[in-house]
UniProtKB/TrEMBL annotation:
Reaction equation(s) it catalyzes: ATP + protein L-histidine = ADP + protein N-phospho-L-histidine
CDD domains documented for this protein: HATPase, HisKA
Entry protein name: histidine kinase
GO terms under cellular component: plasma membrane
PANTHER family: PHOSPHATE REGULON SENSOR PROTEIN PHOR
Catalytic activity, EC: 2.7.13.3
Keyword field: Kinase, Membrane, Phosphoprotein, Transferase, Transmembrane, Transmembrane helix, Two-component regulatory system
Enzyme's top EC category: transferase
InterPro entries: BphY/WalK/GraS-like (IPR050351), HATPase_C_sf (IPR036890), HATPase_dom (IPR003594), His_kinase_dom (IPR005467), HisK_dim/P_dom (IPR003661), HisK_dim/P_sf (IPR036097), Sig_transdc_His_kin-like_C (IPR004358)
Transmembrane intervals: 28-48, 208-226
Length: 504
């Protein structure tokens, strides 16, 4: 129990007034507490109202029974002709005393022949209830409760038993009631009000206790049910502070499981990105350092020799220039990749003839294909116009076709196809080269990844080309697929929407 009170106290210490409505714990507490409070109030009202209706109903029936007996005595003692009957008057006084009320006997001429308050005797009473009761007889009996003034008003007919004449054997008409008058009674409800007040005080005491219990219950329940979220928050804070990078584990609740799964997935993604960043930095350092190291070795070799012939000097300088060109290509590719990492807002979208664009790229690369003894062909199935960034898509086609040429076999073939449907245009680059092993297909778009590192460096590859291609395609909301078989060739399929839509 002490633990729960400790939880409650810590809950209110941590809770700031300014953040009251922002706290899920506070909202849950308020909802539970108000639900219990309103339930108590409604029960209080319903119970008291039910008792009041029941008490009034029972009291009315009891008084009505006494009044019917009194009405019979009025007829029996011929009270309408002689109001001095001590028996009847005694009954009237007793009824008035018992029910703390007032009784008036009214004849069928609406004249008051007896008033226990001795105020209206001899006066004429014109009342809708009295008139209806005189007309309708027993059907006109009325009991009406006046809550504001604290009394019950009853209208009771005084009916004389009908006299049936000899020989009247008609079954069609029942004997007609003879209404001699009406008893108009007012009964005090002070006893009911007093009982209601006592019940209300007791109910209020019980309600205060219940409200306190609900208050404590709401605080305990809100704190207990939201403890899993506190543990998850603490675990996330540990990850944020760098104390751990392990996936968090929490209670097996559906809601917390969803949060934990989402966070662990994010943590895994961040870990992959961090590993990728570290690997990228390492690769960049290595790739940039290698040409510099080569140039330094060549330069040191020249400096170490005396009277170097011009031919040797020239050969060394050619090698140094080659390393400089390699360094320049790596830097340019890195700059291109950085640009590709920016948002799609940096795209310069224009309406471009895709077939013409691919033809220009192939025309630029055809001398390289001839140099490598590769047959480069272009096939266009229809005219294609699309909304694209011409420079970036040119870079995509350039990288794919250049790779297909460089990583091909002697006397190999590279075929480029351009096609389109109603929504997308497709560029296929097919070669008859060495192919890509299946285990490498998932990594070819990673920065600095090479299937065969020795051959890639030999032919001048940096390992950034496909990363640049993929980023440019993603910026256009397109896709790239690869299908490859070792020693048979590779096919890259690029699919890009004809109409560019900037989805943020």
């Amino acid at each position: 129990m002490k633990r729960y009170f400790g939880v409650i106290l810590s809950f209110f210490k941590q809770l700031k007034i300014s953040n009251l409505l922002k706290s899920l714990r506070a909202r849950f507490f308020i909802i539970v507490f108000l639900t219990g409070l309103f339930s108590c109030i409604i029960m209080h009202i319903l119970i008291l109202q039910s008792y009041e209706d029941r008490a009034v109903n029972v009291n009315s029936k009891g008084v009505q029974t006494q009044l019917r007996i009194l009405a019979n005595h009025l007829i029996t003692n011929e009270y309408f002709t002689n109001t001095s009957s001590e028996v009847v008057n005694a009954e009237l006084d007793m009824l008035t005393t018992i029910y703390d009320g007032r009784v008036m006997v009214i004849n069928n001429e609406l004249k008051v022949i007896k008033d226990t308050y001795n105020i209206n005797e001899g006066k004429t009473i014109i009342s809708e209830e009295v008139v209806n009761c005189l007309k309708k007889g027993s059907k006109g009996a009325v009991s009406k409760y006046n809550h504001d003034d604290g009394y019950i008003e009853l209208v009771t007919p005084i009916i004389q038993a009908p006299i049936i004449q000899e020989g009247d054997i008609s079954d069609k008409n029942e004997p007609t009631e003879v209404v001699r008058g009406v008893i108009l009674t007012s009964v005090s409800t002070d006893s009911i009000e007093a009982t209601l007040e006592i019940l209300s005080r007791r109910a209020m005491t019980i309600e205060v206790i219940i409200v306190l219990v609900i208050f404590v219950y709401a605080a305990v329940v809100s704190a207990t049910l939201l403890q899993p979220f506190d543990r998850i928050t603490a675990a996330i804070n540990d990850v944020k502070a760098g104390y751990t990078d392990e996936p968090i584990i929490g209670p097996n609740f559906l809601e917390t499981e969803q949060i934990i799964k989402a966070f662990n997935a994010l943590l895994k993604r961040m870990k992959v990105l961090d590993d990728s960043r570290q690997e990228f930095v390492s690769n960049v350092s290595h790739e940039l350092k290698t040409p510099i190291t080569s140039m330094k070795v060549l330069a040191d070799s020249l400096l170490a020799q005396e009277n170097v012939p011009n031919e040797v000097y020239k050969d060394f300088m050619v090698d140094i220039v080659s390393e400089i060109d390699r360094e320049d290509k790596i830097i340019n590719d890195l700059l291109s990749l950085v640009k590709m990492d920016k948002t799609s807002a940096d795209l310069n979208i224009t309406s471009v003839d895709v077939v013409e664009l691919v033809e220009i790229v192939c025309k630029r690369l055809r001398p390289i294909a001839v140099k490598h003894n590769i047959e480069l062909t272009l096939e266009s199935k229809r005219a294609v116009t699309a909304e694209i960034d011409e420079v970036k898509i040119s870079l995509v086609v350039m990288n794919l076709v250049e790779n297909a040429i460089k990583y091909n076999k002697d006397k190999g073939q590279v075929k480029v196809e351009v096609d389109a449907d109603q929504q997308f245009f497709v560029v296929k680059v097919m070669d008859t080269g060495m192919g890509i092993p299946k285990e490498s297909l998932d990594h070819i778009y990673e920065r600095f990844y090479r299937v065969e590192k020795s051959r890639s460096r030999q032919i001048g590859g940096t390992g950034l080309g496909l990363a640049i291609v993929r980023n440019a395609i993603l910026m256009h909301r397109g896709t790239i697929d690869v299908d490859s078989e070792v020693d048979k060739g590779t096919t890259f399929t690029v699919k890009i929407p004809l109409i560019y839509t900037n989805q943020k």
